[in-house]
Specification:
By secondary structure, the protein is an all-alpha fold. It has two domains: about 50 residues; about 250 residues, MetI-like fold, CATH 1.10.3720. The protein is built from 16 helices and two strands. It has a two-stranded antiparallel sheet with strand order 1-2. About 25% of the residues are buried.
Amino acid sequence: MTPTTTRAADGVRPPGGTAAGKAAPGTRPAPAAGRRRGRRETLAGYLFLTPWCIGILLLTLGPMLVSLYLAFTDYNLFDSPRWIGFKNFQDLFQDDRWWTSVQVTLKYVLIGTPLKLAAALAVALLLVKPRKGQGFYRSAFYAPSLIGASVSIGIVWRAIFNDDAVVDKSMSLFGWDVGGWIGDPDWALPTLTTLTVWQFGAPMVIFLAGLKQVPGELYEAAEMDGAGRWRRFRSITLPMISPVLFFNLLLELIHSFQVFTSAVVIAGSGTNTGGPGDSLLVYGWYLYEQGFRNLRMGYAAAMAWMLMLGIGLVTAVLFKTQRGWVHYEEDAR
């Protein structure tokens, strides 16, 4: 054995070589301090997420699971829940007022949502071009959405459309005397729908953001080819903002299915009939009535899960059918 080999075997680095068991240059493991710092950063991230995790468990997931259990029980808030299986769901389909609430809600959704989106898009098209006082007009049109479905705006709306109120007196000047919009079963739901359409500010702002992303070159080229305003709107504007339109449609549908406050306030908080002839008996109102007035909490929980399934079904259908009319940028590429 040569001396060089003997020194290498003893752990002594020979000239120009590396010691046995030592890592080659460039393969040195990360320092222990770096690993500790990484663990501290990971722990800090989990600590910051802790309030959200606690909230989602205690305020969302937990109540959902309890509600799912109560949907299969007979529970009146005072006695212990009694398991009855699918009886609550069977009673739903035999409840005439439940069917009435479904019909009223569907009418409200199918009429109010398209009108609200149409009004929002129309105003957005007017405000997208720079003009004097543009900021003021945008704020003015958006202001009603800031109020939301509050009790105060419902009271104002009721005062405007009540018997011998401002709207009724104004219409009587033209020979159209309804005699009170809210008290008439034929006009109570249109009154509620008008309130919804009036609060088009939120989708209008989203439409404005989408319209600003449409390249102006497309309009210039279409105008040079002789395309009119309607053709440019139908062939350029709608396809380019179709993702924004889909987003607004989805949000407004979900919000419309959950309508409650405005219907109760407009009809009168002291009534238990859902408005004249149950014309304002929206789903949320009937759910509240069964749960907190009739103390049928299990029945109300079953109604809530049926509503969630209905909204989920509508959402799934929208996502399934969006391929035919929603055009994204990657589709164009």
